[in-house]
Each structure stands twice: as C-alpha cells, then as structure tokens.
Amino acid sequence: MLIDLHIHSNYQKDSPLSPKEIIARAKNTILDGIVFTDNAIYNDVDELKRYGEEVGIVVLFGAEVHSDKGHMLVYLPDISKFGDIIKPSDEPMSISDLVSMVNNLNGAVVAAHPYKKDVDRPLGDGLFTVEGLTAIEVESGFSDNTANILAYDAASRLGIPMTGGSATKDNFDHLGLYATLFSGRLTTEKELVDKLKNGRYYPVNIL
Q1: Which of 17, 20, 103, 180 is deepest in the core (most CB within 10 A)?
Q2: Which value, in Å, is the radius of gyration of the alpha carbons in the chain?
Q3: 181: part of which helix (H) or strand (E)?
C-alpha cells in the first residue's frame, strides 16, 4: 500500500483545505491511503473514515507535534490517547518527554523534515542525539532536495527506517508525489503503528 503519512487540513489554523476535499483529491492520485497529522483533536473521525471507504481511500489519523528539537510525526494505536499529547499551550514539548510518552502509549515517532531550516527550532544534526525514534522522514514535500538528501544520509548512518510524506497543507501540489510504500494491507492506526515498528517499508518520491 502506498500511504501519505503527513497531511494537514483546516483543523489547523494555517491550512485552508478541508479533510473531505483532501480525501477526494487523494482518490485521484496513486495513493491507497492518507494520514491526517494536524496538531489538533478531530471530532469527526468516524465520518471521515466512512467517507474514505466510500471513495476508496484508507483514512487514518496521527499528529505533528512541535518539540524543543524539531517537529515529530506521532502515530498511536489508540487515537483517543492524543489528548495526552496535544496540548493547547504553544510551549514546545521536550523531545525526550515526547518520545517517552509516545513509546509508553505503544506508538511510533517519526522525525518530520529534520533538515528543513525555515521552521521553528529545526532539528538538523541534532537528529543524532535523539533516542527512541521509530523512523525519519526523508522524502518530504515540505523540504527541498538538499534537505531530503541530508535526512536520507542521516537515517542511513543511524540505521533507522525511512518514510515519505507530502506535508500537504496550503495546496495539492505534492499530494500523491511523496509517500511511504508498505507491504500488505493496513486499515487501522494500530496496523499502521505495527508496520512502522517492523521497519519493512520504503520512502517514495514520484517526481
């Protein structure tokens, strides 16, 4: 299955795109599924999952959390637990506390666009000091080619699995171009987390 693990919608203030619009657009790409990763609590999960079934796209939910060392994509087997992680405060969470919390919830943590420079508190080579990561996003529609190459190199040196995601937020330019290829089928957040932890997947760039 080809899944975009990093998508934002208007559940965040800085995105104009509605979840249903994104799902419908995703159906017109080569994607089999998408994961919404807004820093927000969704109140219509069941409705959006049903809509995904209607159009033929697997719809899952995660979150992008800002830490004191970069942005982290978080995936939990039980999405009702995101309330423990997503806080209304703008104060970034300690990366060690975040990773520990997610691991205690049996989730997965992926470093998002680690070499993207123009974000608050970019991670960069701090990647080499972070323990407990599940994977590193090395094909990101939010990063330029150099940043993606640096992320790939870091993941290779660390021996950590790699993912891809479009980071769709403002428009659909990268939807269907950056994703992660999994073997077999997955339809739930628990199955996604299990597959992320087993390490058998590949980042994809269709450009």
Answers
A1: 180
A2: 15
A3: strand 178-182
Helical segments of the chain, H only? 19-27, 45-55, 95-104, 145-158, 189-198
- The separation between the first and the last C-alpha atoms of the chain, rounded to the nearest angstrom, is 18
pTM of this prediction exceeds 0.90 = yes
Distances (CA, A) of 178 to 92, 119, 125: 27, 20, 23
* pLDDT digits 0-9 by tens, 71-121: 999 999 999 999 888 876 668 899 999 999 999 999 999 999 999 988 888
The DSSP symbol for 83 reads G
All residues at 6 or more sequence positions from 37 whose CB lies less than 8 Å from its CB, including other chains: 5, 6, 7, 8, 61, 62, 63, 64, 73, 74, 165
